Amino acid sequence: MTALFKVMQITGWLFNFNQRSSTWPLPSFGLGKSLQLLRVLNLRGNNLCKDDADSLKYALIYMPNLEILDLSDNPIEDDGISSLIPYFVEASERHSPLADLSLGDCDLSCNGVTQLLDVLSTLKNPLHSLSIAHNELGSQAAGPLGKFLRTVIRVLNVEDIGLGSSGFLKLQEDMPEEVKLVSINISKNRGRLETANFLLKLMSKAPELVVVNAAYNFMPVESLTVVHSSLKVGKGIYPQHYQYF
Questions:
Q1: Contacting residues for 230 by C-beta, under 8 A, at least 6 apart
Q2: Residues 212-235: pLDDT tens digits?
Q3: Less Cβ around it within 10 Å: N or C end of the chain?
Q4: Continuous H helices in 62-188
Q5: What stretches pass through the bilayer (predicted)?
């Protein structure tokens, strides 16, 4: 009952912002400097839907210093992301731009994520970290992800998005000459041998990569040779930072 009350409180609070324009005087709304100073906003697991995301974009206007936004575990769907995209563009142009964005398990499709990645790839100040984990995207998401790797993204979480062997193969084909990643989570994508082949190529292109999570990809025994080769290629990877199988 308490959890339900909190959800109702948040959605109602967001709806209030939707009723006001961006020129509404903030002090009269009773929030003052609290939102202006906010740097981290975690709304994970609040059952927010696409309409709540539309309201959220108005609330975010009052948070000019926000650097970390976590909307994971909320069914905002593609329409919710579309509503928030103008905010992501605006936030990238601020003195303190948005740096970390988490959209895990948000009921996003490949179309919605493709639209998102296309926009994120053109931001004035690109993201430092992005999570789109636990969304059923399928192997077709590999194309947009390959293009996104051309940005300066440092931390990427694509756990359990359904890449499969064909997705990892496509990522290998589209990989740029230089990748800025320092950490990547590709676990639970069932890529089998192509997971290991992808990592071998990635590590030759990402000299700063120090953390890799490739767990639960069902890599066969013959992957061990490829994994060993990739560890030798990866300058910054240490065994304790490398999770596989």
A1: 196, 199, 200, 202, 203, 237
A2: 999 999 998 887 777 766 666 655
A3: N
A4: 77-91, 110-120, 142-148, 164-174
A5: none
Residue 230 is which amino acid?
S
Q: What is the DSSP letter of 242?
A: E
Residue with structure tokens 């981290």? 40
| CA distance linking residue 150 with residue 177, whole number of Å | 8
What's the rounded Cα separation, in Å, for the pair 100 and 80? 18
175 token code pair: 């990989």
Domain residue spans of the chain: 2-21+38-244
Instruction: State how far Cα 58 lies from the chain centre.
Output: 21
Q: Place domain 2-21+38-244 in its CATH homologous superfamily.
A: Ribonuclease Inhibitor (3.80.10.10)
Please, are residues 44 and 76 in contact by the beta-carbon 8 Å criterion? no
64-80 residue pLDDT tens: 999 999 999 999 999 99
Helix locations, the chain, DSSP H: 2-18, 33-37, 50-59, 77-91, 110-120, 142-148, 164-174, 193-205, 223-233
DSSP for 142-154, written as a single string: HHHHHHHTTS---
